[in-house]
Specification:
three-stranded parallel sheet, 30% strand, seven-stranded mixed sheet, alpha/beta, globular, Rossmann fold
């Protein structure tokens, strides 16, 4: 795992571990990075579109930092399995009422393949609104290589990049046996 705006990579360390766990310091730093990049890019939006469940914590933290209370929630389905990357086909479970002409910022905890983010972007566009950015604490390195922000017209704001298919545990999730914390 590496901090994207930090040249030092922890990639060599993560090769040896199946699971990596983030602590609250990582989350606080990630949300601070969101705020800094939103300000630097002068991204103006009306509401956050929170990808449920993982995006709820970082969205709440960001809401306090930037004093933006308006949120809508978008939820996709995955298996109930606790096995890493054991996902079924993407299904939308919860659709927010998107207001025509509004600008949205997506907030998520982690992006692996990007199905949820891409579906959320398409849904917002279908309602004649715009997604101006997508914030994620962690992105899979393969997603990052495929992502084309110019094609999507959406700024990607992320704090950490993980090795392809690395299982990440956030501090609000159940602990995993033999997990390794990154400090």
């Amino acid at each position: 795992m590496k901090l994207l705006n930090n040249p030092k990579s922890l990639k060599a360390k993560q090769k040896f571990f199946k699971y990596l766990a983030l602590d609250w310091k990582h989350i606080e730093r990630a949300v601070q990075i969101f705020k800094e990049k939103i300000n630097k890019k002068s991204l103006h939006f009306d509401k956050m579109l929170v990808l449920v469940r993982g995006g709820m914590v970082p969205a709440s933290m960001l809401s306090f930092l930037i004093n933006k209370r308006e949120m809508d929630f978008f939820q996709g389905a995955k298996t109930n399995s606790n096995k890493p990357h054991d996902y079924q086909k993407f299904l939308v479970k919860l659709l927010p009422k998107i207001e025509k002409g509004k600008k949205y910022l997506i907030v998520e905890d982690i992006i692996f393949e990007g199905d949820t983010v891409y579906n959320a972007i398409q849904y917002v566009k279908s309602k004649q609104s715009e997604v101006i950015g997508a914030c994620s604490i962690v992105v899979d390195e393969m997603f990052l290589k495929r992502y084309n922000s110019k094609h999507q017209n959406v700024s990607l704001i992320c704090a950490y990049q993980c090795e392809n298919l690395k299982w990440i545990r956030f501090p609000w999730e159940n602990k995993i046996k033999n997990e390794v914390f990154l400090i």
